[in-house]
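Section 5.1 Outputs to date
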Amino acid sequence: MALLASRAKKAELVVLSELLRKKMLQENTPLIRNRWNFFKGHPDVFVAAEATAWACRNLPITFPRDYKLDGALQQLSLEEDETNEDVCSSLGSVSFSNDQLTHEQAVAMFQKLLDAGILKSATEKRKEEFVADKSFFRFAVDDSRCDNFIRSIVLGFRIYSCAVDPESRLFQRVCSSGQFVSDESLQACEIVTWICKHFNIQREAATNLADHMLQNSIIGPVHYRVTEFMDNSYFYLFKMEFKMVSISHLLEDASYTDVPTPQRKCPSPPPTYESLLKSDGSVTKAALLHPEAPFVKRDLKVVPDGCGYGFCVRGDGPCFIKVVDPDSPAGKAGVKEKQFVTNINGKSVLDMKYRGVEDLIVEGPGRLEITVLEQNFCRMG
């Protein structure tokens, strides 16, 4: 229950921060922009003092008064030249008070977001206090080191914010076993397409982002149990309810003081190439197959002469070229010493001892097709 409570509170803070961020970007001169400090550029940051003053001028303590998302979304789409009366009539269930934020309340609001990891200092890694000075801050979602849970909530909220607009036609009615399930389901391929369009990335990268939403329980499948999000025709529903905590509630509720990010069990990092070598530095099969192994693959064809092929192999899986006569058919075809042998005439030999490899060569069809891995010194450098 504690985990679910922390997830819900974290989500409420993230949604509120997303609304604040969008309003800050909608200013005639956006508060969030690229800035310079001591000849060093800082992308997508705001100045603490400017943001505090802006919040005091533009945000009532009741922003937004209730938790209905549709009204708040309408608020963000309003043009700045509308009058206050027009604003109030357009917001529907979201209304405002004349009680504007005080300086202390604005600082406290940003402090709560900083405590929750939703704001980050752009210049200090562990800045723990929000002070209305010239310090640079950015929203975590604009930081390359953004917490995966926060990024997943933001992505889900942005997709949902677009989907609630009937013109988007993202939501579809879905039934299961003849029973109505929901009018707010999304097809996996449509989610991927939306992410590609709005983030200008390829479908593989977009699928990976959507998978983060699945793993963080932002979305869930309708019909099937799945462990990995795929770019297919499956339907998904939002499992997280996007509620917003009002600023007044945020400041009054002590439980928002420090909302931890729910910790999920993360897989161990993949082994490095160096960690797969033997203690004496010799190469293992696993090291050869590592994606960062410093080897290049070569497919060679060797036709023997009257004296044979002109090389010999050694090793017990993987085998390697021990000796090669440079003037022999093998030497002229590109076979070199210290190359590792992976295939002989289409058969994998990575697990074979050298005597078995020799038998394959001798018993072959009279010509040799050999695949080797040759050390790539450029990659090592």
